[in-house]
Amino acid sequence: xxxxxxxxxxxxxxxxxxxxxxxxxxxxxxxxxxxxxxxxxxxxxxxxxxxxxxxxxxxxxxxxxxxxxxxxxxxxxxxxxxxxxxxxxxxxxxxxxxxxxxxxxxxxxxxxxxxxxxxxxxxxxxxxxxxxxxxxxxxxxxxxxxxxxxxxxxxxxxxxxxxxxxxxxxxxxxxxxxxxxxxxxxxxxxxxxxxxxxxxxxxxxxxxxxxxxxxxxxxxxxxxxxxxxxxxxxx
Amino acid sequence: xxxxxxxxxxxxxxxxxxxxxxxxxxxxxxxxxxxxxxxxxxxxxxxxxxxxxxxxxxxxxxxxxxxxxxxxxxxxxxxxxxxxxxxxxxxxxxxxxxxxxxxxxxxxxxxxxxxxxxxxxxxxxxxxxxxxxxxxxxxxxxxxxxxxxxxxxxxxxxxxxxxxxxxxxxxxxxxxxxxxxxxxxxxxxxxxxxxxxxxxxxxxxxxxxxxxxxxxxxxxxxxxxxxxxxxxxxxxxxxxxxxxxxxxxxxxxxxxxxxxxxxxxxxxxxxxxxxxxxxxxxxxxxxxxxxxxxxxxxxxxxxxxxxxxxxxxxxxxxxxxxxxxxxxxxxxxxxxxxxxxxxxxxxxxxxxxxxxxxxxxxxxxxxxxxxxxxxxxxxxxxxxxxxxxxxxxxxxxxxxxxxxxxxxxxxxxxxxxxxx
Lengths: 235, 420
Description:
The complex is a heterodimer of chains A (235) and B (420). Chain A has 235 residues and is α/β, with parallel strands linked by helices. Chain A is built from seven helices and ten strands.
């Protein structure tokens, strides 16, 4: 489903050249829940950006849902990102000027759904995260946990094949973090593939599969709960 | 689970722009939004009224006079001795001038377009004090007048020598035959068939009957006394006085040299007078219209400066918003917006702001016009000027946001995952 082969990412300035990813190999299967851990600066976020088509890469091959995305133009990458990937960010990244309804509406509008379809999806997804009654509220009127639930609703409203989460509980207290983690597990149980970058080992242990990134490489694999060992073969 | 059948290509271009959320967002930013809307509204009010005033002035500057402005000049001959005989002097001068090879014709007249001085008479189609009258500037010209001024005779005929009377200002009489302009004919007889006008009698100042001998296409009055500058009547008269004005028409491309030749000749041909104010009609026109040209220039500078200030305001605010919303744009990009979506978003935002400004500006423009109409007797502002000004502001607005918007569309979607 998501296959990276010898992916490289080099950041260049006039003075410095930094290899953020080097020969990065990973194969994530359908329905997987992969936790990506590693020290700061190891390349976790770069991996997530490339996996989410937010950034291009310098070398290697990346196939998303069977499609080679190496040479796609910006428009096509935006389209794929919108159709196949849902994002959950550490700082929620809700648009502060938009109410919850309009926030969830953002990716659906770029998807091209008509207004009735968008309304149905927004209401369903906010219902799923328990915030349907507050859809006219602004993000600033919600707690951190509630904001992250809205971000999850926004990520899921388009029914993506992948959910990419960047430290999804990083800004939440333990109780809210657990509640968000439970929600993610439910989503994964329903069939959505999740890749989650985290510093939190306890949280990572709740994923089906753990990978450890160091110096821009997948250097260690910890099978917390591996349903299919063959999925690791590409690592 | 996944729904990839819904494709971006199915989307109508405008359905990707969140107009209502955008409007709600703008309204929440009430201070910046209000400031920008007010700026656009004020600019529209000034721009539409300013353009209208400029257009009015330009119309005045460009209105046709009916005379040959390019090849004509005027001069003043002022006798200063006791024995100076103005009639003899004028006759001798005109005879000599009409013989000069570069001169088409010459005439003695105090009035010509831009001369700024003429008498106005009231004309009517039947005698009596209670009849409706039409004002007309009266020219006094001999049979050479039509050719000297370069007028076009549409119907009837020119005066003959016998009809022309030489008289002083104190021995003023009204003629029995006149030539009128087509606009005056139309005002008097409500027709455009000029041949039917010829032979009809009109009454000057309710009393003096005169037969219309000819109709000329146009002869602008020397000054606009009553808003009827196209209404002129020509009497077959030559007024004599010590200070005479000659109106001279030259052959093509001979104006400058003829002006010098004529001045030299007249200055030496009669030592009892002096020659003054030798000026081409175009020079006189420039002097007469100088204040109008100045007013137009100042108004255009004000309009231009105001437009630039408005554009800078829009560009500044958009750039400020761009810095403020950089992360938000990254998020939108991460959620599937392509570069065109971001550009469209900024353009749509500008169009919404401009539309609010235009709607308010429309009211302000009408209010300003009502004030100008009441205070300065300006005509009512036509709707087209508000529409043109609004279009200018829309285009200006889009040009102003273009640079920041292009900057915005190049923001990387990866910004969404960075802490900014």
